[in-house]
Amino acid sequence: MLSETLEMLAASGGAALVGAAATDAWQTTRSGFTRLLGRGNPQTEQATAGRLDRLAAEVSRAAGPQELESVRRDLRAEWCGRLKDLLEEQPELAAELGELIDRVQGELPAAQQTWVQNNTAYGGGIQNITQGGDIIVGDVGRPRR
C-alpha cells in the first residue's frame, strides 16, 4: 500500500499529464512520461508513447467544455492508477516523477495548471475553504438584530 505522500504524487502526476494534453507543453510531457514509464525498455517506451498519443487524441476530440472536463476527469483517474502502480512497484521513482511534474506544470498555461489542497477537520470541526476567490463566512448580508 502506498503512503499518503506517494498517493498524492500519483494524483498530481495524473493531473499534470492530462492537463498538458493538447497544449504547447505536450511534447515535453509526452517524452518525459514515456521515459519514466518505459524505464529504458524500447518496447515498453513504444507502448507507453502509443497510450499517451491516444490520451492526447481523446482530449483533442472532446466537443465542448463539459465533455472536455468529463474526458479529463476519466483520464486523470486512469493515469493516477497507472502512476500508483508504478510507485508501488518502484517507489524509488518518486523523485523523478516529482521533477517531471514540476517541469510539466511550469510549462502549462495558467488555466491548465493544477493545484492540490488537502483539508481535514476533526472532532466536529468546520472548514471554510476556497481556492482562487473570496470566501465570506456568516450572514454578512443579513441585518443584525
Measured on Cα atoms, how large is the radius of gyration? 19 Å
How many DSSP helices?
5
Domain module count = 1
How many extended strands?
Answer: 0
What is the mean pLDDT? 84
Q: Helix/strand/pairing class, anyone?
A: mainly alpha
> What sort of overall outline do the alpha carbons produce when their principal axes are compared?
globular
As a percent range, the share of helical residues equals: 55-70%
**Residues in β-strands, percent:** under 5%
SSE ordering: HHHHH
Distance between the termini: 55 Å
Unreliable spans are none
Brief write-up:
The protein has 145 residues and is mostly helical. Helices cover 61% and strands 0% of the residues. The protein has helices at 4-20, 26-38, 42-61, 65-89, 94-107.
Please render the helix and strand layout as text.
Elements: H1 4-20, H2 26-38, H3 42-61, H4 65-89, H5 94-107
List keywords for this structure.
single chain, 145 residues, mainly alpha, 0% strand, globular
